[in-house]
Amino acid sequence: MTGLVDAHVHLWNRATDPQPWIDPRSMAAIDRDFSSGDLAEMLDATGIDRAVLVQASNSLAETRRLLDDPGDRTAGVVGWIDLTADVHAQLDLLRTGGRRPLVGIRHLVHLDPDPDWLRRPDVGRALTALGAHDLCFDLVIRPWQLPLAASVAGEHPELRFVLDHLGGAADSTDLPRWADGLRAVAAHRHVYAKISGLAGLVGDRGRLRWMVGVAVEAFGPDRLMYGSDWPVARLGAGPVAWRAAVDDLLGELSAQQCRAILSGTAASCYGLDT
């Protein structure tokens, strides 16, 4: 059985995969390497069975290392390929060997120097190719990019999209605009979303409850999945407190709806073994 799934975690060894975005002063809690052993401890502490590893750098080599990670708690990997190059050749390379299945692709759109990267014609062709390979594409974007994400999703009905961190909800300074953007993305039934990247808002339960309420109304439990965004969650309340907050936020949902968010949606969207 797939069991409960954390749909968004990271591993990194900075000797092989540098993380230059980590500031030692303001991000001391994550200013170290994180291994599959650390992941197992976190999953045990949060009562989760397995996790989806998500790329943390635009690196094909990092993706190959994640696919070959020796830990036994990995349900799948959302990796990176160069979507402006030969998609089929790169996927053939990644699917040769490796212990874990490749279930999706992500590009750090929110950090790309080109704010319209998703609009590139070669990227559009690559997204079509991902759909043909039955892979998902994770969208990591800024709140102001939600209309762009909605437009691109509408152009690619053949591809399952996964909106990470509710479209950068934690960074939103215009909540009504964020909510409108999220609803526009959710209007496309082949788009899913992760309740993740919000551990920093655990202390602001009113704002957090409102945001998650908007997401549940827009997507429904069958298109929402839980993610800790560990180890980045250590910069906020931490993964244990975040898991407890999620349980509280979902308290009015039925057991079946909660199970979808904590397991079923990730399993069906990413095609995890059941």
What is the C-alpha radius of gyration, as a whole number of Å? 17 Å
Q: What is the SS-derived class?
A: alpha/beta
Number of helices: 10
Mean pLDDT across residues: 96
Helical residue percent band: 25-40%
Query: Would you identify the regions where 5 or more consecutive residues have pLDDT less than 50?
Result: none
Strand order of the largest sheet: 1-2-3-4-5-6-7-8
**First and last CA, distance:** 5 Å
Q: Outline, from the CA principal axes?
A: globular
Number of strands: 8
Q: What is the subunit arrangement here?
A: single chain
Run of helices and strands: EHEHEHEHEHEHHEHEHH
Strand % is 5-15%
Described by strand count, sense and barrel closure, the largest sheet is:
8 strands, parallel
